[in-house]
Structures are given as structure tokens and as C-alpha cells.
Specification:
The protein is an alpha/beta fold and about 650 residues long. The chain is built from 25 helices and 16 strands. The two termini are about 30 Å apart. The protein binds one RNA strand of 77 nucleotides through α2, α6, β9, α13 and α14.
Length: about 650
RNA sequence: GCGCCCGUAGCUCAGCUGGAUAGAGCGACGGCCUCCGGAGCCGUAGGUCAGAGGUUCGAAUCCUCUCGGGCGCACCA
């Protein structure tokens, strides 16, 4: 709603500037700090002042003069240093807002498919809170793009031929010999078992580096895909992925496709890409030096890699195994449909998701062939992502490289207090936070955190609602726990490290997910009470349009104005990849609603017109908040 | 050494491509449930926007430098 008005008025203003001064200017729109100043402000006169060498207010007056205001605009005034401020007809505006979806699509028809890759947890141990940040952001991005009208495909990459999985295989077969049948029979939580085992393997290597030979041997076996080690790896990876999907399902996070690295190798995707790299001279076999025997991608000539100590990246190790980057270049090519090869697919029934396979189902969905690819990967891997792009460039696909977006967010570390609770010794000199480490087994497991959140939520709900049936209590607690966790991850600016603190994450008051849910529950209760009193629970746009303009107080109008900005907040979040904007906007709506809630009773207002104005304001706010919460993966509980 | 990110209230953080009086949450203190649910609301205290230059009518925001802190620059990912 605001979005379209901005465009309309900006276009009109640009025309007037052109006609009057012969200048091409793209006016930007702002929201004035106080509603009394107006609803939409254009500082264009301030920007034009220098070029025209005239006072901005004078320019503003000239531009405002004789402007025939379109229907829906109530006033145009010159304010402050020379702003052009528009005010809207409030009832009509509210009616328009109620008639449109709370988050309105902005993507052009026929927009190309966007592949979003996220989660990508190594299938060798339990998910921790760092992985949650990735999955929550990825899911929020996917939902936001979909709401804006883009075709979206969510992929979760399963690195089932990498070093990390190999290490757990070594743990099971060499360190603590376990048969396949025994691995299969291990009780849940299997991923917790592997979490500890992985840390033990790390220490085992340190005791005697000669044991790293077992890793090399295993890595070869995983790439070849045959023998006991490969079989063990398949079993372990499958069980772990099942656990990861279960963890994510608790948060409402799902995927369209699991891409397995073993299929990239097994179906010769890598061989194919590697051959192209060789033909183009993008890789070379090193005869001597520290990379002797390796195939490397030389990056010395690429400007963005200037200044690196070692400007070469190893693609194929001297023992013939392939690094992650090498495999990722092939994967990235496939995402764009540029590899000239296709996966087979099968449906993973129990998990309700497709996965790649060597042989598969008859008529799978059309995966891949994206116009744009967004990889949600933490900022520490920026260097690797740049190499993948350089690989696409080297293969003669500059447009694909340009459409390969690395959505980089900062990592999650642990607060000193939380690290101590985990039994980590934290010295004063170690600073204020501790980095998580799968190798060392340091981290807060996602399921542990969720369990604690559910437990706390259950206590809180039970306190307020005695005699609630156990299943309903559990259901409500899970909804609240998921909201708390997702909002905690979503509200942080992506460029900031999250110092994860358990007490902070367990908060249900203030800027939290449950606070948003409480707004929704309150809003819903107003509707219920209205209905019980024989009044309409919801007003339609026509009823809103007929409301007397003078009954709109500035504070209620402000709420409508805020609701109208929801689409723009989402659009901006998606286009800049600053997804916290979605969470921030939802929070602001909820805060404003709570504040007004106490001052503007609906049910107890006797004047029907005034009651309808309040109801309209709250209804627009709840619709917008509901829409934003849907993107955030925050459900509206029946009660809380 | 080179590159990226961060430095705003006691703590955790917003502050949108420069613009109208620097804002929230937590914590502290003081109020508000015969009234749509107190997971809420209202109020008070609390800021040299790390520091120094520069650009501009205007800088927390842009540029340069300095000082702190984090992360990269593997035959891990």
C-alpha cells in the first residue's frame, strides 16, 4: 500500500521536476518522524537546492503549487527545511489495505526461479545453535521471496563424501570397532552419540598423527562408494540427516530437495566439470612446490584475490580425492542448468522430501535450472564462495557468476557464562565469548535448546491455564518455544556475531517471539468477544471506507500506517538480504498495538463509529503482523 | 602482512541509499489488573554515537587515518 503510493507519487514528482527545471531526478520517499507532519515525505527539494542554487523551501513551494492531488491523498504541505509531505485519506487508505493481501507480491510475472541453498549441516553429528542461525535465515529468505511472488526452490546440501563424515566412520570402524548392524541398532539420539564420537576421533588423531592415514583411506572409500566404509558412511549419513530434518521440522523448516554430494561424484558431475576446467586451462597439475601432485586453480591473475599469500586453491588433492570447492563448482553449475547432466530423484517418504539419487522415480519435479542462486553460508566461508564464482567465470559463465549470491551472515559464538554452563573452562584472558567447535564437541545442541524452551513454555502456559489437556499444553508449548528460538535468530543483524547466551535465548518477555504471539492472541480475543456480543468479528473494506475521517486519532492512524509498510519491509529485507528487517517490523507493530490496546477499548466503546475505527486499526495491524509472523515461522497459538 | 565484519545508555542491540528532537529490550527505581488476558502498559534515571581529521547547508550514517575486538587467507568445510 505505502509501496505503491511511493512509486506513484515519486513518478509524478519526477515529471514535475523535469517539466519545471529540466532536471532528471529520482525522488526518494521517506516516512516523516511524526504522523502530524504527514504520511510520506519527499526531501527532493533539499537535494535539488545545490544544483539550482536556491533555497530548498522555495523549490518545495514551487513544486507543490498547482499540484492536483489524486484521489486518496488528503493534503500536500511543505514542512521543515523543504520537505514535500503528503497525507492520505485515512478511511479510504485503511479500506484499501484490508482489501489487499497483508504481504502483497511485487515480483514481475514470469520471474525466474530462485534456488535457495541452506542448512547444509555435515551429516556426522547433531545440529547446534550455529546451524540454527543458518536454517532460520534460509527459511525466512525462502518464505519472504515466495510471498513476494518469486518461484523458489529450497535445497539442502548433504556433504556425505567429505572429511567430517569420514572421521565419524573412522570412529565407528577403527577407534571403537562397531559392526554395521550395531550402528544400525544404536538407540536415538544417534546424532548425539556421533557428536561425542567425533570429538573423540579428533583427540585420537592428535595422540598419533599417523592415524590420519585411516582418514585418507576412508575418504577414498567414500568417493568410490564401495566397500564397508562407504556402506557405513551411507548408513550414518542417512540416520543423521533424518535427525537433522526432525530437528528442523520442530521449527517448521522444510526443504524441496536434498542434494547429496555422493551423487555429484557418482553421476560424474564432478568429472564433467573438471574436464571443462582442464580444457579451459582453469586448473593445472602442480609438478613441485607445496602443492606438488595437486590440481590447483590459479587465482593470482584474478584481481579480487590479489594479496593472498598463496593464490592457488587445491581442487584435487595429491592423493586423488576432491576438495569441497571442486564439488561445489559442479553443483553450482548444475543449479543453473549449465552442467549438461541431471540427477535422478527419489522421494524420502518418512521425511516428505525429495533427494537426489543415482536411479530414481519416474516423473520427479523439475529441479534446478535457476535464474538466480542464493547460498546461505556463514561469512567465514566467503573466500570459498568467491572461488566457486571464479570457477564459473573461468568456465565462461559470467552471467551465472553474477547471479550466484553468497548470503553471508556472521557466526554464532557462546557467551562465557553459557560456555561455563557447558563445562567449558573459560579463562579471563579468553575474552567474552567462546567459538563453537564440532571437532572439540563444544556447542549448544539445537534439540537440547528446544527441549528447554518447550519445558519453560509448558510451565508458563500451565501457570495461566489450569486443567488444560496434556496434548494441547504440549502443542502450545512447542509453538511458543519455536517462536522464541526463531525470533531470537531472525532479529539479529546478519553482519553481527551472535554471542549466544542461554538465559537470553530463554526469555519470553520484551523483544521476543512470544511477545509477538501474545499480540496475535490479544487481537484474536477482541474478535472473539465482539462475536460473542453479537457484533461482526471482522469489518470489510466497504465498512472501513465509510468511517468518518475525523474519528481517526493520530495514534490509531499510525498503526495503520505501520501495517501498510509490511510489504515494503519484506521487499527490502529480501533485496538487501538484511532479513532482520522482517523481525524488526513485526516487533514494531506488536509494540505499537500493545500500547494502543490499553488506551483504545473496542468492545466497551459505546459509540459504534469510534468502535469501528478502532476495530479497523487493530484489524489491519493483526493482518500485517500475522503475515510477517508467517514468514518468520511464528504460529498463532490458540491461547498462551 | 593482506582482506572482511563490529565499536551507539550499566548489559544486548535498532537507527533504512546523509535530513526533522539519537530510539528499543533487559537490568534499576516508581506506578497500573471491580475495565477486550499483567508473557502487557505508563513513568523516572541513564549517551563525548571508540578517537582524530575531512566532505556537506546538514554526519551516528559518506571518505581517510588511529585505537580496540572478532573472523578469514588448509591437500577442513
Amino acid at each position: 500500500m505505502l509501496f505503491t503510493w511511493k512509486q506513484t507519487l515519486a513518478a509524478e514528482l519526477a515529471g514535475r521536476i523535469r517539466d519545471r527545471y529540466g532536471i532528471e531526478h529520482r525522488p526518494v520517499a521517506e516516512v516523516p518522524p511524526r504522523r502530524a507532519l504527514g504520511d510520506l515525505a519527499f526531501p527532493a527539494p533539499l537535494h535539488l537546492a545545490r544544483e539550482l542554487r536556491r533555497p530548498p523551501r522555495q523549490i518545495a513551494e514551487e513544486l507543490a503549487g498547482s499540484w492536483e492531488l489524486p484521489a486518496g491523498v488528503r493534503a500536500l504541505r511543505v514542512e521543515g527545511a523543504g520537505y514535500l509531505n503528503f497525507s492520505f485519506a485515512r478511511s479510504a487508505f485503511a479500506a484499501g489495505l484490508l482489501a489487499a493481501p497483508p504481504i502483497a507480491p511485487t515480483a514481475p510475472a514470469g520471474a525466474p526461479k530462485i534456488v535457495v541453498e541452506h542448512t547444509n549441516i555435515n551429516p556426522n553429528k547433531a545440529a547446534h545453535v550455529g546451524h540454527l542461525r543458518n536454517a532460520v535465515l534460509g527459511d525466512l529468505l525462502g518464505r519472504s521471496l515466495r510471498a513476494l511472488g518469486h518461484p523458489v526452490e529450497i535445497q539442502n546440501y548433504i556433504d556425505d563424501t567429505g572429511v567430517q563424515l569420514a572421521d565419524v566412520v573412522v570412529g565407528f570402524l577403527d577407534l571403537e570397532p562397531t559392526s554395521l548392524a550395531e550402528i544400525r541398532a544404536l538407540p536415538e539420539p544417534f546424532d548425539y552419540h556421533c557428536w561425542d564420537l567425533y570429538a573423540r576421533v579428533g583427540r585420537w588423531y592428535e595422540e598419533d598423527p599417523a592415524r590420519l592415514e585411516r582418514r585418507r583411506e576412508t575418504l577414498h572409500a567414500l568417493e568410490a562408494g564401495t566397500g564397508e566404509r562407504a556402506q557405513a558412511a551411507r548408513l550414518i549419513a542417512r540416520r543423521i540427516v533424518g535427525r537433522h530434518l526432525g530437528t528442523m521440522a520442530r521449527l517448521g523448516i522444510g526443504y524441496d530437495l536434498l542434494t547429496r554430494e555422493s551423487d555429484i561424484l557418482g553421476l560424474h558431475f564432478f568429472d564433467h566439470a573438471f574436464q571443462q576446467l582442464r580444457e579451459r586451462g582453469a586448473v593445472r597439475l602442480e609438478a613441485d612446490g607445496k602443492n606438488a601432485g595437486c590440481w590447483v586453480m590459479p587465482l593470482a591473475d584474478v584481481a579480487e584475490f590479489a594479496g593472498l599469500e598463496d593464490p592457488d586453491k587445491v581442487i584435487v588433492r595429491s592423493d586423488g580425492t576432491i576438495t569441497y570447492v571442486g564439488k561445489d563448482i559442479a553443483y553450482q553449475l548444475w543449479k543453473f542448468g549449465l552442467l549438461g547432466k541431471e540427477f535422478a530423484y527419489r522421494y524420502w517418504m518418512e521425511q516428505g522430501v525429495w533427494e537426489t539419487a543415482a536411479e530414481g522415480a519416474e516423473n520427479p519435479p523439475a529441479f534446478g535450472h535457476a535464474g538466480r542462486v542464493i547460498n546461505v553460508i556463514d561469512a567465514r566461508q566467503s573466500y570459498l564462495q568467491r572461488i566457486v564464482r571464479a570457477g564459473l567465470e573461468a568456465l565462461g559463465h559470467p552471467e551465472a557468476a553474477a547471479n550466484s549470491v553468497h548470503f553471508a551472515y556472521e557466526m554464532v559464538s557462546l557467551s562465557a557464562a553459557t560456555a561455563r554452563q557447558l563445562g567449558q573452562a573459560v579463562g579471563e584472558e579468553e575474552g567474552r565469548s567462546v567459538e563453537m567447535s564440532g571437532r572439540k564437541g563444544i556447542g549448544v545442541k539445537a534439540d537440547d535448546l528446544l527441549d528447554r524452551l518447550v519445558e519453560k513454555a509448558r510451565e508458563q502456559v500451565a501457570q495461566r491455564h489450569r486443567d488444560l489437556p496434556r496434548p494441547e499444553l504440549q502443542r502450545l508449548a512447542e509453538q511458543i518455544a519455536a517462536a522464541a528460538l526463531r525470533f531470537f535468530m531472525a532479529k539479529a543483524t546478519t553482519s553481527r556475531v551472535i554471542v549466544f547466551d542461554l538465559d537470553e535465548a530463554l526469555a519470553f518477555e520484551g523483544e521476543t517471539g512470544p511477545y509477538l504471539q501474545y499480540s496475535l492472541v490479544r487481537g484474536r480475543n477482541i474478535q472473539r468477544k465482539l462475536a460473542a456480543a453479537g457484533l461482526p468479528a471482522e469489518l470489510d473494506p466497504a465498512a472501513a471506507a465509510a468511517l468518518p475521517e475525523e474519528l481517526w486519532s493520530d495514534d490509531l492512524w499510525e498503526l495503520v500506517h505501520l501495517a501498510a509498510g509490511a510489504t515494503e519491509a519484506v521487499e527490502k529485507a529480501a533485496s538487501t538480504l538484511e532479513l532482520s528487517l522482517v523481525a524488526r517490523h513485526a516487533l514494531e507493530l506488536a509494540q505499537r498495538f500493545h500500547a494502543l490496546y490499553h488506551h483504545h477499548p473496542v468492545l466497551h466503546e459505546e459509540d459504534p463509529a469510534l468502535r469501528a475505527v478502532r476495530q479497523t486499526a487493530f484489524q489491519t495491524a493483526m493482518r500485517a503482523l500475522g503475515g510477517l509472523c508467517e514468514l518468520l515461522g511464528i504460529e498463532e497459538p490458540e491461547r498462551m
